[in-house]
Design brief:
Strand content: 15-25%
Number of strands: 16
Strand order of the largest sheet: 1-2-3-4-5-6-7-8
CATH architecture of the largest domain: Alpha-Beta Barrel
Number of helices: 16
Radius of gyration: 25 Å
Distance between the termini: 25 Å
Shape: globular
CATH superfamily of the largest domain: Aldolase class I
Structural class: alpha/beta
């Protein structure tokens, strides 16, 4: 991997304030800039060649002031620094730790399986973002999960910056010795390792899933926390699963017992997303008031989004006394997902006057690029109206809104897009077309946040020229699609060489496919099917000889017009092996793998997506290997 990625880019924490504009000493011509109104998202990529493609821009965050009212002229508040890390204590009572579980809970989304190196890339970016704790995975789930957590612990968990910041690396485990020992073996290489163990405490879970009494549950929890501490781990988090539906008195009892056993963080999960913000805030307040020894630990939240209230519940939990918030990038996760990091962080920042100055260590300028990376690697496309990072989040189509924006941006924007890393259009006025050179291409890619080496620019340049020959103007959305297709892909076990299809109303569709294997060999197959895509996929199956089931197929045009680049996303499931253990249920399940492809030919785009999904699946190590 590129050594540059091991570095942690961190800026001082920006103090929360009561307003949401951005002022910078270098932006005096701010009002004359053109606002880029739409940011189309491409589908999904995959892999280790990401190196350090997402890089910070040259803006200095120390000059920024974020406000959520009307004043752009207020003087910047004093900068607040991240307090020293102590597992069971935060020296500054206003500081809120951000616990990111994108790589664990987020990856439980169907089709969101990521390879070890993809997870490492995301962990590096999370460190740039400044999260306090990275839950890197569930090490006991599979060999690949274990290796991914171990790799992240060794590299990201030891990349200490000049201010002493290094993220805690956490591994999830059920309340049994094998899971806990496996988690410790994976995370122990980090400078700040943590074990997160859990057991269900709600009546319905204890009766029907665990079939255990309250006394048995308390004893298991207490003994497993002690076991985790006995391994040498001095940072242990405990979660009473389904706390939102658990009896209060029982919660106070079991939490008090795990505190005595050595737990340093108590995470209160609304596992099924059933509580309202007022209810969840009351739950946190009651636990804080009634749990013996609670003053010696950190209270945490973990809110699922089944009713669309996860971010609101999380913020309410912080207002009630929680000082660790568990979130994911883009809110991805099981079922309807989790609390969204970007929503929670910016909600606290903009609502600071109502939250007694709560603040985080997140460098908000990395939010958008981190969101893009997770979208690309997970294959989970954002809805256009997703708060903050969706394509329409800073788009203004209504005439009344446009008029207000032209007169004063704060009429309809409570946050400047630059605060979260969405850049204004390039000031040089460069328009990319078939006569553009490598320098112009590299410059625009850098403005979009990508930093590619010379070989990658060269490869991308020829793809760019091929597209530019067929389009008068290559847009930013086109560039993002090309980067995704060329750079964000899994290590190639198979690579598409040539494709020829014949289709129409006069006979069966046929396809001839040439693939290059990892050994450099050339493989050719021909097949017939119900259409060009079906016949091409069948030809690939003849070469790869890996039985799979196609679960999802979708295609989108990146831009408008008949000459638009098409991006295709597929989700496949291997019909043998490629299994993992589900963290919550303990059941073995078959992994699903997504892949994307891009091209002006829809069949070529479809074939690239299928090959990309196969490469990801073949690169995954399941528990049986």
């Amino acid at each position: 991997m590129c050594s540059a990625m091991a570095a942690v880019f961190r800026s001082p924490v920006v103090s929360p304030s009561a307003s949401a504009s951005v002022s910078a000493s270098t932006s005096q011509s701010h009002s004359n800039r053109f606002l880029l109104l739409r940011f189309p998202h491409s589908s999904k990529p995959s892999h280790s060649r990401l190196q350090s493609f997402f890089t910070p821009h040259t803006h200095n965050p120390t000059n920024l002031t974020i406000s959520c009212s009307q004043s752009q002229t207020s003087s910047p508040p004093p900068l607040l620094r991240r307090p020293p890390y102590i597992p069971n204590h935060i020296p500054d009572p206003s500081y809120v730790r951000i616990f990111d579980t994108t790589l664990r809970d987020g990856e439980q989304s169907p089709g969101a399986s990521m390879t070890s190196k993809e997870k490492l890339d995301i962990a590096r970016q999370l460190a740039k973002l400044g999260v306090d704790i990275i839950e890197a995975g569930f090490p006991a789930a599979s060999k690949d999960d274990f290796e991914a957590v171990k790799m992240i612990a060794k590299e990201v968990g030891n990349a200490v910056d000049d201010d002493g910041y290094v993220p805690v690396i956490c591994g999830l485990s059920r309340c049994n010795e094998n899971d806990i020992r496996t988690a410790w073996e994976a995370v122990k290489y980090a400078k700040r390792p943590r074990i997160h163990t859990f057991i269900a405490t709600s009546p319905i879970h204890m009766e029907f899933k665990l079939r255990k009494s309250k006394e048995q549950i308390v004893e298991i929890a207490r003994s497993m926390v002690k076991f985790a501490r006995s391994l040498g781990c001095d940072d242990v988090e405990f979660s009473p699963e389904d706390a939102g539906r658990s009896e209060r008195e029982f919660l106070y009892e079991i939490l008090g017992e795990v505190i005595k056993a050595g737990a340093t963080t108590l995470n209160i999960p609304d596992t099924v997303g059933i509580t309202l913000p007022s209810e969840f805030g009351e739950l946190i307040a009651d636990i804080k008031a009634n749990t013996p020894g609670i003053e010696n630990v950190i209270i945490s939240t973990h809110c699922q989004n089944d009713l669309g209230l996860s971010s609101a519940n999380t913020i309410q939990g912080a207002l009630a006394g929680a000082r660790q918030l568990e979130v994911t990038i883009n809110g991805i996760g099981e079922r309807a997902g989790n609390a969204s990091l970007e929503e929670v962080v910016m909600g606290l920042k903009c609502g600071s006057k109502f939250s007694n100055g709560l603040y985080t260590g997140i460098n908000t300028r990395h939010i958008y690029l981190t969101s893009r990376m997770v979208e690309e690697y997970s294959g989970l496309q954002l809805q256009p109206h997703k708060a903050l990072v969706g394509a329409n989040a800073f788009a203004h189509e209504s005439g009344i809104h446009q008029d207000g924006m032209l007169k004063h941006k704060e009429t309809y924007e409570i946050i400047s897009p630059e605060v979260i890393g969405i850049e204004r259009s390039n000031e040089a006025g460069i328009v990319l077309g078939k006569l553009s050179g490598r320098h112009a291409l590299r410059k625009r890619l850098e403005e979009l946040g990508y930093e590619l080496n010379d070989d990658q620019v060269q490869t991308l340049f020829w793809r760019f020229k091929a597209v530019a020959e067929q389009k008068k103007r290559v847009t930013d959305a086109d560039l993002r699609a090309l980067v995704s297709d060329e750079v964000f892909q899994a290590e190639p076990v198979w690579k598409l060489g040539d494709l020829q299809v014949t289709c129409g109303t006069l006979g069966l569709s046929t396809a001839t496919v040439k693939l290059y294997g990892v050994d450099g060999g050339t493989h050719v197959a021909c097949s017939v099917g119900t259409g060009p895509v079906d016949s091409a996929y069948k030809a690939i199956d003849l070469i790869v000889k890996e039985p799979v089931t196609l679960l999802e197929y979708s295609m989108n045009a990146v831009t408008e017009g008949i000459d638009a680049i098409a991006t295709t996303r597929v989700v496949i499931r291997g019909d043998k092996n490629h299994t993992s253990t589900h963290a919550l249920t303990g059941e073995t399940f078959h992994r699903t793998f997504s892949g994307t492809g891009a091209g002006m030919d829809v069949v070529v785009s479809s074939v690239k997506a299928y090959v990309a999904a196969l490469n990801k699946m073949l690169g995954f190590k399941d528990a049986s290997t």
